[in-house]
Design a protein that fits this description.
It contains 18 helices and 20 strands. The protein is α/β, with parallel strands linked by helices.
């Protein structure tokens, strides 16, 4: 009789895990406390996998030999507590996937920048001709891809939630970009506990593996001391530092230096990032991390330089969406926390018309005040309750106004902007007050820019 695995959660990772478990001969049951999206229900039905939605039937779940938990389910959920009480092993989709592949995994985590870094690393390897797959928090189940297991390499974005309940999973190259307070409600409001969840990425590294980490990140420095790591360490920084034997740093604004010890060559490697379309200081860090990952994987510097120029980032991450009257419009709707907004404001050198606001997640805007003071000409608050933004920035920026309409915000920005300015949507807040999600907010912003651009070009052609 086959072993029984129960999968909790039936979205991308849960359904991928169910399909892999079935392919490996397990008796599979899927349980989701919410409604299952039609696309996933169809996959389960087609595969003949039993499932339930809108409930967790504990009597069935507690008969499992092992349970795969989707990342969105917190430890405090009653179903998880019941499993812990019965001492039934709980693992993540990533843990399950790792058991069934010999492919080399390049895994990337961090509070901010992991999607950009993951997509860029994947792009650098793919352009160099590597047989590489893309998986994880970018929206593609690693487990489902491992059913065919047709790739020699996988580049995998991992959130702290996905790293929870990994035990034996073993990356080849692990990348940790940064650790700043986020999702602390899942970790007992302890930054240390959250940091340790991120550092699980390095827990199983062996001597032939690589650990790439940000030497400029204070929390990483402090917490990393507690992790025993046999791997080759590849720290990186935005600057050359006397206190670190760095494996990568910027020797000029658009030039990376990789000392010979880091890249297995007889000489230091100097590599230009001038062709990269990425904006901002944090993207210089993301780029450096991706370049180091590609070099550790054996990609030649000349191929990296060429591929940097053909990279296009995911939508809603410092994404240029148009120009009106000489002012550039940038969609950074993914900036749903203060740190992400800080990176955006810090990375733009031109005067900024800043559109911000939404559902406040207990934000402390203190770190943004010096940047707002030096760079922001006007703040347009786009949210239902803008009280905290107004209190924080009302006396800091020369002009502040509020609206609950994206189109109005864009029209006002057009009126306030001068040629050479940047209109930046970087909300520092979640989107759920006025929008379905951050993608919806970003799409509406881009659509408003496009609409106003067309109106203006139409006016010009009529007057000609």
């Amino acid at each position: 009789m086959s072993q029984k695995i129960v999968i909790l959660g039936a979205a991308e990772s849960g359904v991928g895990a169910a399909l892999l478990a079935q392919a490996k001969g397990f008796d599979v049951f899927v349980s989701d406390r919410s409604p299952i999206q039609p696309i996933y229900k169809e996959k389960l039905t087609k595969a003949g996998i039993r499932f339930e939605e809108n409930t967790h039937t504990l009597d069935e779940i507690l008969t499992a030999e092992e349970v795969v938990k989707s990342p969105g389910i917190p430890e405090k959920a009653p179903v998880i507590q019941a499993l812990r009480e019965k001492q039934i092993p709980v693992i993540s989709e990533i843990e399950l996937a790792g058991r069934y592949t010999k492919a080399k995994c390049i895994c990337i985590t961090g509070t901010n920048g992991k999607t950009t870094t993951t997509l860029l690393t994947y792009h650098l390897l793919k352009e160099a001709g590597y047989n590489v797959g893309l998986a994880g928090n970018v929206g593609y189940s690693l487990a489902e891809q491992i059913i065919e297991d047709k790739y020699e390499y996988y580049v995998v974005e991992l959130s702290s939630f996905q790293l929870d309940d990994t035990h034996e999973f073993h990356p080849w190259i692990a990348v940790l970009l940064n650790i700043t307070p986020d999702h602390l409600d899942r970790y007992g409001y302890s930054l240390e506990t959250y940091a340790q969840a991120k550092l699980r990425i390095a827990k199983n590294l062996k001597g032939s593996d690589f650990f790439i980490y940000n030497a400029d990140d204070a929390v990483t420095q402090k917490q990393f001391q507690s992790v025993f790591c046999e791997a080759t360490l590849l720290p990186f920084s935005l600057h050359k530092r006397p206190d670190f034997q760095l494996s990568g740093y910027y020797c000029a604004e658009q030039e990376v230096c990789l000392p010979m010890s880091a890249v297995r060559t007889d000489d230091d490697v100097h590599l230009s990032t001038a062709a990269s379309p990425l904006i901002g200081q944090h993207n210089r860090q993301n780029t450096l991390a991706a370049v180091l990952a590609a070099r550790a994987a054996g990609v030649e510097p000349v191929m990296i330089e060429v591929a940097l120029g053909t990279f296009r980032n995911a939508d809603h991450r410092l994404q240029p969406v148009g120009e009106i009257n000489g002012a550039r419009f940038i969609n950074d709707s993914k900036a749903t926390n203060v740190e992400a907004a800080w990176y955006a404001l810090d990375g733009i050198r031109q005067p900024i018309i800043w559109i911000a606001g939404g559902t406040d997640k207990g934000n402390d805007y203190t770190t943004l005040i010096p940047l707002a003071k030096s760079r922001v000409k006007a703040l347009i608050c786009l949210g239902v309750d803008n009280g905290k933004l107004k209190a924080s920035f009302g006396e800091v920026v020369p002009h502040l106004e509020e609206t609950q309409s994206v189109e109005t915000a864009v029209r006002r920005a057009v009126e306030l902007a001068q040629p050479g300015d940047v209109v930046l949507l970087s909300p520092a807040c979640a989107s759920f007050d006025l929008f379905k999600n951050y993608e919806d907010r970003g799409r509406q912003f881009a659509a408003a820019v496009e609409k106003i651009t067309k109106e203006r070009s139409s006016e010009v052609s009529h007057s000609a």
